[in-house]
Amino acid sequence: MLEGLFGVLFLLFVLFSMLQIFIWVGRQMALDYSSFYGAKGLSLGYAAEITRKAARVAAMSASGKDISTSYKMPLTNQSVSQLRNQAERYMRMGEGSGVNYEYWQGDFGARPHLRFDFSPFTETTYFSTWLDNPSMLIPALERVMNLCSACTSKSGAPARIGEVRMYNYAKRLLDED
Fold it and tell me: What pTM value is reported for the model?
């Protein structure tokens, strides 16, 4: 019975580790997509605020719970068109739209938060998206993740980073020679 118990515990650890890796890869894809949208907006000459909003919308799937104050619906009832309407409302009205997600909060404490870094004034635009202090399914995996220096943020917690560089078409078109 003792061997069976250890076997079941080992299998549960493997299962939860695989789930955590799935969540980790999904977040990485969302942050890469967010960075792509940000770099694309900068390279086309959009204002920084519009670019930041577009990158936030692209990272909605990695932004935690929906804590919107308007038009909030349970996830089971949301359709693709309702999510699209929510993203369009945020892009048009910004912070006044009532659309908000858990990781968009700017208190920068120990809780997870989404932040951006970009440079629109060079030959190549640079856009980077961070998700600091993301939650883990198994807290013991944080120690394993901390062994990889590329996987950790400044605070030591696992961080997801998406980076994209793109040719700056706006700089070329708007420069007066």
Answer: 0.73
